Amino acid sequence: MNERDLDFQLIQRIQNGEQQAFTLLVRKYQNRVANILTRYVRSSGDIADVTQEVFIKVHKSLPSFRGDSAFYTWLYRITVNTAKNYLTSQSRRPPASDIDAMEADSYDGSDALKSADSPESILRSEEMKRVIMDAIDKLPTELKAAITLRELEGMSYEEIAKIEDCPIGTVRSRIFRARDSIDKQLAPLLEE
Amino acid sequence: MTEINEKLSSLIDNENVESKSLDALILDKEQQNVFSRYHLIGDVIRNETALNIDVSELVMAEIMQQPESAIVTPIKAVAVRENSDNNVISFIKRFGQYAIAASVAGVVVMTSFITSQPTIENNGIEVLNTIPFGSVSPVSLQANKSQSKQALQERHERLEALLKDHQLQLQLQP
After folding, report:
1. pTM value?
2. What is the ipTM of this complex?
3. Of residues B22 and B156, more confidently modeled
4. Residues of chain B found within 8 Å of residue A1, distances taken between Cβ atoms
5. What does A31-70 look like in DSSP terms, one character per residue?
6. Min CA distance, A95 vs chain B (Å)?
7. Contact status, residue B31 vs residue B24, Cβ threshold 8 Å
């Protein structure tokens, strides 16, 4: 299976009129879109507004999405165009060079935000990062390996099973237990 | 709950994208929150974001306000295959059309030459005054000046019949 499977199933449902499926695409990608926008938009308040605008544009354009490229690549282009339009409306020039979809994922938007955003939102963002990293550190070795191979290396369950020399079902269980453990630390922070 | 979240975890990894799991996820807001947090964990591990925003409700509210969501399923392109026989027939058809059109045009030109000759009605005033070089008289000048009005009428009728015939042939062609 490739990464496009869940996206394509969601897109098919939306194209068949199941509008509620779109909420999952928003939930999946909104933070990555926001991270790209930090290169163009300084205030976190504006980032939320422009992120919203991006997804409304995506929804409008979805009938014309034919799946020739990955959904994220397509989403990335809409995000950058929306960001540039935002800068034009604010009478500001876009950055001299664009970053591509691959670079955008490794671009740390928190640095850009630090220059103009409120200290509270910066602290919150840094605390969230710290909680997640601490939770990973505390994981048993086999769970840490499973989640790292999946999230950092992008390996499939089958590949991880071969490396860890265990059944695929065990890999599935380990990855879930790792996520669940991290989530137990993260959820209270996000509910505050 | 643990079993549901385990299924959700593998769905995120594209390892278990079952229609049933997706149906449940679309309807259950609590599961959607877990879905969001699991994705956020992955994003932070990969250093893809340090932000946590949630605009999903605002986006969906905006979408639902739109009068009619113009969702159209992509139209599948249908390839039209024409074999070589069809191409030959098509070429003959087209060539035939050109031949008919050329002959009709020829008749029209000839008729215009003939009918524009000076007659009793126009008192000898030449409508088309063409004098070719050399000793040979133009075709139009060789025409009999004493042609009657009835002959002209007959010629017009023949021309009209030819045009009608041509139009009929065009209509009959598939």
Report:
1. 0.65
2. 0.85
3. B22
4. 14-15, 17
5. HHHHHHHTTT---HHHHHHHHHHHHHHHHHHGGG--SSS-
6. 20
7. yes
